[in-house]
Design a protein that fits this description.
0% of the residues lie in helices and 54% in strands. The protein is mainly beta.
Length: 133
């Protein structure tokens, strides 16, 4: 498998998924606004049959070699949206005050998981601009 230290080296979903990722960013003066939206349909392993969601599952437990489709097994849908606004307090060290709202819905025919978060933070992004060329 393509994994190291129990994490996928390719995509966190492994295989058997559709995904749409969208980032929108806008800057006006010291204000920054951003929206991150992710929509995903993916299939997880069901019963003892492997559908590609678990990279550590034995290869011989698959359903077959041909005739597969995306989302087979236990079909899940994931919707994630993170909307945030920040104000740059100090541009030299990129010190920002941020407020945001995050929604995450993950559902299938057996269960549904919903999470809503409001967050407030203070952050900085220090960087080194060394060019070696």
């Amino acid at each position: 498998n393509y994994a190291h230290f129990n994490q996928s080296m390719t995509h966190p979903r492994g295989a058997n998924f559709y995904e749409w990722v969208n980032f929108v960013r806008y800057r006006k003066g010291n204000w920054r606004f951003s929206n991150q939206f992710i929509w995903s349909i993916y299939g997880t392993d069901f019963d003892i049959v492997s559908y590609g969601g678990d990279l550590y599952e034995d290869y011989r437990n698959r359903e077959g070699t041909y005739g597969h489709k995306i989302g087979q097994g236990l079909k899940n849908a994931l919707v994630f949206n993170d909307l945030s606004a920040s104000y740059i307090i100090n541009s030299h060290i990129n010190l920002q005050a941020k407020v945001g709202y995050m929604i995450r819905h993950n559902y299938n025919r057996l269960s549904q998981q919903n999470a809503n978060y409001i967050y407030v933070g203070l952050s900085t992004q220090l960087w080194s601009r060394n060019y070696d060329y």
